[in-house]
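We modelled the chain as a single entity of 605 amino acids. Its sequence is:
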Amino acid sequence: MIFNIEEELKKLPPKPGVYLMHDEKDAIIYVGKAVSLKNRVRQYFQSSRNKGVKIEQMVTHIARFEYIITDSELEALVLECNLIKEHRPKYNTMLMDDKTYPFIKVTVQEDYPRVLLARQMNKDRAKYFGPYTSAAAVKDTIDLIHKLYGIRTCNKVLPKMQGKERPCLNYHIHQCPAPCQGYISKEAYGESVKKALHFLNGNYTPILKELEEKMQQAAEELEFEKAIEYRELLNSVNKIAQKQKITNSDMEDKDVIALSVDQQDAVVQIFFIRDGRLIGRDHFCLHIAVNDSRPEVLASFIKQFYAGTPYIPRELMLQYEIEEKEVIEQWLSTRKGQKVHIKVPKKGEKEKLVELAKKNADMVLTQDKERIRREEGRTIGAMKEIANLLGLSELQRVEAYDISNISGFQTVGSMVVFEKGRPKRSDYRKFRIRGVQGSDDYASMEEMLTRRLSHYENYPDLIMMDGGKGQVNIALKVMDALNVHVPVCGMVKDDRHRTRGIYFNNTEIPIDRDSEGFRLVTRIQDEAHRFAIEYHRSLRSKEQVHSVLDDIKGIGPTRRKALMKNFDTLDDIRAASVEELEAVEGMNKKAAQQVFDFFRVDKSE
């Protein structure tokens, strides 16, 4: 059915909703919201309007559009966020990072509360602290709280299960007072939990003072091991306390958000402030269009980020005013269950904090650009160096080959692939050499190349052989026979088995050892060798299993194959129980017992 855009534009209702633009393949390329669908969607197809490069380009790809009517602009915003997250349209400003943040959860609703790491906030009457940017830091903090306050780590339902099992190791090493046994009252345990809550709220002074006194007392009583233990705990508390820097005095939860933009890339930096303390920061990368305004990028980030994060602070401090401020505030307030404010500070301490976030975003963007530049030098730049060295006009895909055998045993070949300077492991191939007896690398290489070039037509821009003139000539011989024309070179090594140069067109070409091209050749050569050796090692291991299983009475080819399929190594079969062996397809209890007994009989008798 033909979609007539002009006719469909006339049918648009003057109501709030969400519109979805589709291309000729019916893929969703853009999702937007509108207070009036009739006015907003028509704007895309009016030639008189200055739409910008991104929108003009997008409009040329629109084959059809559809829309969903909502009751309000707020409902349209929620639906827009969900559809962008689900479909990730090409022309929307997209958040590249999909991160989740850990919380510290204190199960105060339980009779004997626990302190846990949580990935989301639930309406379960527990107390949550965070979110934090480092899961490792959260785990360290929880471990420290367990040691400081003797908070239980088990999942037992107490007091229902009190006395039904023996106390765990934590009780015996004095890190838990064993509420599971009733050795501590609910009231006394509750006092420890209160102290832990004060600690999580940033009140470190009491515990620092207590640990200092205990350390001094243990030292005076010559209990040096205890003194060292208290000193370590003291250092751990100080380490956590130093990270919780005061940022302002109003003690409100807030996120400080600023961004840095460079052509088609943007970095957003967030400072997470909880109870007036900076508990962490993080940055996010976005793909943007050249003429996207900074407020537009900021608004897109806020909608995508807070649609996915379980915690929303009372206040967002932004770098720029955003157009949809009121409706976004309403949406965030609905999600949080209380009023959320969006502010753009113009002076004072808060403005300085936003500026600090901006400087951090600038730094991340600069570092990322430098990292990308270095990475391109290692990959694309290195490929260009090799192409220039060999006089090739283009070099995108390289295939490298190697042979591995030990005294002619199970000769194998490997093919590794590098595209744009990076390994493409999905295209790697293994070859088990069948037509060559003994150790003959040239004949083995000939068989491998013949099989590869006969069966796959997506030929590379360059074939690299692990070796010099002899290996190159074998490749040329195979290509002549198959009427295939691909440049081929050899990776020549010196007496110490280090890469020395490239053999190409009957000439050994030296390479600058300090160049990225040389480093890439070395990586390709090492990867081809590693892949061949790894395959050869796996075959030797299977051959070893094969030969040992031949000696077990009642284990024929079918059962042997089943055992080898179910267990990776001989040691795994040796360690298996009778029940695990019997569970293998084709095995019965008698055969399983024979395998089990075989590995437990003293062969020296």
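As a brief sanity check on the tokenised model: Residues 516-549 form the longest helix (34 residues). The first strand starts at residue 17 and ends at 22.
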